[in-house]
């Protein structure tokens, strides 16, 4: 097989396996998703090295999910560079203090050395067991490598047979439930206002919820839901292009912060903070932002996490937030 995808939607008791004998379709922009069907895997920023990929399904199986036991992967060492994050934080924060950006997301990665090559399917099942309320996805193909994610964030979705679409503004992080800080409220408000502004160009009957606290893995986030009707479903690619990347994983203003991240962040995000999921398959779409994810390699796993910075952000607090987020995937390995 050229490409294999396994995914489980939140709060379901089955998973879907997609196999394709054909090369994934390489797309150069989200707009090219108009009128398409298949499984989408998009990077943070489309490039020659990280194309937007559309997988056409030759085989689709719906299989019952059986929770795993407490098997662990033998981890040899966890490698990270605190000094690298410090330099990136200073660089990014200076732009905020100089009022060049309102918000920007800084990410980092850690490399986990394993004593033996982890089984991707084993890790998928363990992630499903640990995180029943999140979108779990395992993607493997030559063009992208092998990725596993357990993400809580919907980019855009629609149930089969329904005309209504849904997206969310998810931002702000706490380890324990409690009152939200001014920084977290402002950060999440930026995302919600951005989504509302861009939906106005593509949707009618937009219903926006009040912000509320939701839980993902062991962390609390601040969330606003949007339910709406698209003016024309045929142009779903245009809608996706308008939304992605949202300020939840990029910044404000969008293009300027994305360019800055690509030029100055110390690592290449690749498919981290992109999006993935089934598009218009059986009349349903479930696209999720690729968060809490890792790239699986030979005896090595690269885990990614990030956090939104504002002008009043504190480096120690932001570093700690990425540590909490990295634990989502570390717990799958432990």
UniProtKB/TrEMBL annotation:
<feature type="domain" description="Chorismate-utilising enzyme C-terminal">
    <location>
        <begin position="82"/>
        <end position="325"/>
    </location>
</feature>
<protein>
    <submittedName>
        <fullName>Isochorismate synthase</fullName>
    </submittedName>
</protein>
<dbReference type="Pfam" id="PF00425">
    <property type="entry name" value="Chorismate_bind"/>
</dbReference>
<dbReference type="InterPro" id="IPR005801">
    <property type="entry name" value="ADC_synthase"/>
</dbReference>
<dbReference type="InterPro" id="IPR015890">
    <property type="entry name" value="Chorismate_C"/>
</dbReference>
